[in-house]
């Protein structure tokens, strides 16, 4: 899992500067699609929720943690990322949340990467799987922002 935390650390160094160079963060291709700024807000929500999931898995005393889906569209709407935040402020939040994730993951002992959790569809996965899923999700949305 060192490569995963290293990848996330590299993003913490590169993504903020790359986003600052974009001029079209608020452009919405159609009203029902997120702008790049809203995607960044969604990535803040994702980091927040996934950090809590990782902590729950690492601290549970009951066996395995159930992971519930969340309404990502509703979170973007209630936070009103398009109008209520400056892009620079969202970058600060995103960096802070992902720094917290990196610091958490750096201290996970090897055996704990195999801790179980259960997805909403009842699929059993491990903490390692969930962290990789988080990184894959992040990659997907960063591609959208930088396309």
Structure description:
This protein has six helices and three strands; from the N terminus they run H-H-E-H-H-H-E-E-H. The chain is mostly helical. The chain has a single domain (2-10, 33-146), classed as dinb family like domain (Four Helix Bundle (Hemerythrin (Met), subunit A)), CATH 1.20.120. It has a three-stranded mixed beta sheet with strand order 1-2-3. It is globular. 21% of the residues are buried. The mean pLDDT is 95.
Please state how the strands of the largest beta sheet are arranged side by side: 1-2-3
Under CATH, the homologous superfamily reads dinb family like domain
So, CATH architecture? Up-down Bundle
**DSSP summary: helix tally:** 6
Using the coordinates shown, work out and report the CATH topology: Four Helix Bundle (Hemerythrin (Met), subunit A)
Give the oligomeric state: single chain
Mean pLDDT: 95
- Provide the succession of SSEs: HHEHHHEEH
The largest pleated sheet is described as: 3 strands, mixed
| C-alpha termini separation | 28 Å
Structural class comes to: mainly alpha
List low-pLDDT spans: none
Determine the strand fraction and express it as a percent band.
5-15%
The total of beta strands comes to 3
Task: Note the overall shape.
Answer: globular
Q: Percentage of helical residues?
A: 55-70%
Report the top-level CATH class.
Mainly Alpha
- Radius of gyration, Cα only, in angstroms? 16 Å
**Count of individual domains:** 1
């Amino acid at each position: 899992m060192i490569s995963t935390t290293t990848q996330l650390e590299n993003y913490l160094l590169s993504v903020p500067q790359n986003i600052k160079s974009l001029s079209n963060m608020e452009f919405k291709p159609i009203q029902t699609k997120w702008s790049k700024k809203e995607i960044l807000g969604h990535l803040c929500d994702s980091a927040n929720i996934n950090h809590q999931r990782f902590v729950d898995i690492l601290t549970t005393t009951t066996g395995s943690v159930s992971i519930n889906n969340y309404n990502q569209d509703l979170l973007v709407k209630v936070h009103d990322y398009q109008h209520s935040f400056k892009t620079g402020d969202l970058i600060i939040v995103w960096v802070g949340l992902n720094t917290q994730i990196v610091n958490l993951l750096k201290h996970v002992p090897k055996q704990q990467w195999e801790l179980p959790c259960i997805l909403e569809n009842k699929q059993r996965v491990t903490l390692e799987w969930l962290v990789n899923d988080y990184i894959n999700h992040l990659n997907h949305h960063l591609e959208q922002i930088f396309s």
